[in-house]
Amino acid sequence: MDPEIREMKEDIVLIGVLKNRRDLNLLLRKKWYRIPSLYAPRRRARFIAFYQPSVFGKSGQRIRYYARIKNCEIVKRKWILPGEPDHIRADEDYLKINLSGIQRLPRPIINKNRTRISFGFTTLKKLLFVNTVMELFDIPPIEEILSDALSKRRIKFSREHIFSLPDGKKYRLDFVIFCRVGLDDKNGLLNIECDGEKWHSIRSQRLKDSLRDRNLRKEGWSILRLKEKDIVNNLQKCIDRIEKKMEGLGGAVM
């Protein structure tokens, strides 16, 4: 193997997410990226790449930029964003990742399957040579694993389903299966959530999940949460749980 390619293969890249265009402008202008210390990945990386979600419109659902990591420091949010002194996290610690330059990929890496992207790791070689987000990771995201398993069992589902509460608040549901309930053939609503261990083990997120589930149950939803370790290590058990839940709601609508 060419020494240059070998070195490239071993260079670890952190995949970060840009929340909006303002964060992209900050990145390009000031050459740093921030992560709340509570959520900061523990694995070290030499590079960082930036995923632009659907909020970016036509330039969203893709990775366009990456950079070499110069150094990192722990700072207060209000120090790096002094224009937001009243922000709820103004006094919280953030990991500020300083960059030695921003580079544009020869071609963007597209999220063709609309997979939900959070922090992850890949290699520089993959970043520079693959075409889709799915190719970046050795292990598919848990949503992809479950989606493939449901499709193989011929279970009809809706993915990333948007549901609005009466007050206008919207939730994005990982998976939805419509089931028959009672003799009137009314649709039963089954929401299946894939809970990544890193994110959903945090107390503040667990509280948000609990409130979300209560709100959805008031609107007639049944909720089934599947843990990442079960999806990865015992997928059949997860499918069995789903089918048992479906049976209790009268079976899937075909």
Any descriptors?
single chain, 254 residues, alpha+beta, Archaeosine Trna-guanine Transglycosylase, Chain: A, domain 4, Endonuclease, Chain A, six-stranded mixed beta sheet, 9 helices, 35% strand, globular, disordered N terminus, Restriction endonuclease type II-like domain-containing protein, Restrct_endonuc-II-like
CATH class of the largest domain: Mainly Beta
Strand percent estimate: 35-45%
- Seen as an oligomer or otherwise, the chain set is single chain
- Which ranges are low-confidence, i.e. pLDDT below 50, for 5 or more consecutive residues? 1-9
Give a quick account of the main beta sheet: strands, pairing sense, barrel closure. Answer: 6 strands, mixed
List the strand order in the largest sheet: 2-5-4-3-1-6
Structural class category: alpha+beta
Annotation, overall tally of beta strands = 10
Whole-number tally of structural domains: 2
Average of the residue pLDDT scores = 86
Evaluate the radius of gyration.
21 Å
| CA-based shape | globular
- Total of helices: 9
* Intertermini distance: 52 Å
Would you identify the CATH architecture of the largest domain?
Answer: Roll
Helix content: 25-40%
Helix-strand topology string? HEHEEEHEEHHEEEHHEHH
Protein name: Restriction endonuclease type II-like domain-containing protein
InterPro entries: Restrct_endonuc-II-like, Restrct_endonuc-II-like_dom
Domain Restriction endonuclease type II-like: 169-245
